[in-house]
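pls read this stuff:
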Amino acid sequence: MQTCKPVTTSTLRQMKTKKEQIAMLTAYDYPSAKLAEQAGVDMILVGDSLGMVVLGYDSTVSVTMDDMVHHTKAVTRAVTRAFVVADMPFLTCHGSVDQAIMHAGRLIQEGNAKAVKMEGGQEIVPIVKRCTLAGIPVMGHLGLTPQSVHQLGGYKVQGKDIESAKQLITDAKALEEAGAFAIVLECVPREVTAKVTEALEIPVIGIGAGADCDGQVLVFHDVLSYASNIQPKFAKSYANIGETIQTAIENYVNEVKAQHFPRPEHTFHASEETVTQLYGKEGQKC
């Protein structure tokens, strides 16, 4: 049974041990985070996917640290229970260790996130170690890493052959040993996901990675079909909110054009005395 007690890294570890699935969803502003929190999600990811579903970019690469801090602050204002993780945007965790810690620190200190998420495997191990030592919880991200989409040659399933599957397992173990508290696996064959999940003591959260992990994460706009032209195979729409919103706005526009809005019940009136002073004795209410 869900409680109001805040979710922590220890909570997530216990959920894996108890084989209790972890429900994670992205959110990018106060209203979306508030709805996700009230719906009972365990984790909220302020993903750099906001570049595509909120800011209108064609990839996540253009998202800046200032963008992430701004949106993370909005999300954390709405949340008391869910564990909020913020993405480290493009290049912020692949430079020097000191610079990476500084960037991660902004998401924790300014954004009030509980943890940061980094894309990459063994190459980011030194940064994961230092962040962990500095008190910054780190979530890894393996498989399809959107920030490397140009290098990968597009949004393709990863870990399909034995070499790349073994590399995923190696990278996942390296991140765990470095101190990561959880890992996201994106667009990975179910069988490989199962092997990675079995090999780790920390939770593995899947997105397009099958049902054999410790939890799932989806993008807010995909779940609601909310003004997004992107329809990944792995996503499921639970409502068509975008169509509902568009219809409502169209109805508003039509009523304004036809002068059916505002109606008397939406209108304020001045006192008789004020009307007389404005228009004289023959004045009338607007």
